[in-house]
Design goal:
The protein is α/β, with parallel strands linked by helices. It has helices at about 40-50, 55-60, 65-70, 75-80, 90-95, 125-135, 150-180, 195-205, 225-235, 250-260, 270-275, 310, 315-325, 325-355, 355-370; strands spanning about 1-10, 10-20, 20-25, 25-30, 50-55, 85-90, 100-105, 110, 120, 135-140, 185-190, 210-215, 245, 265-270, 280, 285-290.
Length: about 400
């Protein structure tokens, strides 16, 4: 199911096997909440080299519905992505203000904002939805606490997350047989950034029979130092033999550091959301392509980038297309950013294989922060600057929109 092939310090590379093939680790997944990575079709993702993406089962279950996706041949066929698909349980959405009516140990009563119909979403229901649409890797339903809440909320979140994890596991076992499915199930740990809580949750979840372990409830507003401490704390108690997935982390330097600490898998709307706001990733940090200094710049977005945008178009063209809100602008910017992320993972895997990851990490970070524009490093979530649709994920380090 998961095989570690090479190690370099604490970083490791390997292969995750799913019903839709192999995924080389460490890897980054673009987010396809509504069965699409915004503005880019599935064939393009495959062409770029993506072996996995993540969709949101809760959102899809409301619209178009599990039945519709089943009738159309399952999620892979529906969105024409032939490789590995993860599905998020939707824990974060179910429990967000937009949907939540009431939360209890049984599950969450939510309101479908479109129809107004209220429904009970339970761990069992979440398993049914994920196996129903046919993803390769399902995530447990967890209770995500908000950052900096008082101790009692964290304790409640952990208690509920563990009880729900157990129910997910039992239901999943049953459904897998019924559906003759090879779907994997990953457990999610909680505990915020408090060492004792994190350790307690990690130990509980790793003792259950999950195929992989995700670090949940992170990247929700904590400082970078708190985040890295929480990762190191968790890794002390995670088994070597299972995939380690850090949910929601997307900024390239953070990912490079987390791989160095031993994480294998990431997902975030970071590259896509930033692209749409004109923030393009390069080895020298992000450039704000909407800045008027790029209006006549004939260079590619990033010198040496082999993506089709950098091969064929200038910064000036991308600037103009985005500035005038042409649909092509969003697409070109997104293609460059997601190409960059996939290529970065390839470079990380190569460095691990050649046992020079520490050196690679140091060189990468030095160059990344050498750029003239340093928009990175705001440690707080800035969701208030995001459009409504972009609030579907808990985090991005998106710049202030003026
Ligand atoms: Zn490029």
């Amino acid at each position: 199911m998961f095989e570690v092939k090479h190690e370099s310090g604490k970083a490791r590379s390997g292969i995750l096997y799913t019903a839709h093939g192999k995924v080389k680790t460490p890897f980054f997944m673009p987010v396809a909440t509504k069965a699409s990575v915004k503005s880019v079709e599935s064939e393009k993702l495959a062409e770029i080299g993506y072996e996995a993406l993540i969709s949101n089962s809760f959102i899809l279950s409301m619209n178009p519905s599990v039945k519709t996706i089943q009738d159309l041949g399952g999620l892979h066929k529906f969105m024409n992505f032939k490789k590995t698909i993860f599905t998020d349980s939707g824990g974060f959405q179910v429990l967000s203000k937009e949907f939540l009516v009431k939360k209890s140990d049984e599950g969450a009563i939510f309101k479908n904002p479109k129809t107004g119909i209220k429904d009970l979403f339970t761990p069992e229901k979440s398993m049914e939805v994920q196996i129903g649409i046919g993803s390769d890797v399902a995530m447990t339903l967890d209770d995500v606490p908000h950052y900096n809440q008082n101790g009692k909320d964290y304790v409640d979140s952990i208690r509920r997350t563990h009880a729900w994890a157990k129910r997910c596991l039992e239901e999943h076992k049953k459904l897998k047989e019924e559906h003759k499915s090879k779907q994997l199930l990953f457990g999610i740990t909680q505990g915020g950034i408090t060492k004792e809580y994190r350790t307690f949750s990690t130990n509980k979840i790793t003792k259950m029979d999950f195929d992989g372990v995700a670090l949940g409830g992170m990247v929700v507003g904590e400082t970078r130092k708190e985040l890295m401490n929480a990762i190191h704390t968790s890794l002390n108690d995670l088994p070597e033999t299972k995939v380690r997935y850090l949910m929601g982390l997307g900024s390239p330097p953070d990912i490079i550091r987390a791989i160095g600490a031993g994480i294998d898998c990431f997902d975030s709307t970071y590259p896509t959301a930033n692209a749409r706001h004109g923030s393009l990733i390069t080895d020298q940090g992000r450039i704000k392509i909407l800045n008027k200094k790029y209006a006549e710049d004939e260079n590619p977005i990033m010198e040496g980038c082999k993506c089709e945008v950098c091969k064929n178009y200038s910064r000036a063209y991308v600037h103009y297309q985005l500035k005038t809100h042409e649909l092509l602008g969003y697409r070109l910017a997104t293609i460059h950013n997601i190409y960059y992320m996939n290529n970065l993972m390839e470079r990380a895997r190569k460095a691990i294989k050649e046992n020079r990851y520490e050196e690679f990490e140091k060189e990468y970070l030095e160059e990344y922060f050498s750029g003239s524009e340093k928009p990175e490093f705001s440690n707080n979530i800035q969701t208030k600057y995001l459009k409504k649709e972009e609030k579907e994920r808990p985090i991005y380090y998106l710049e202030h929109k003026k």
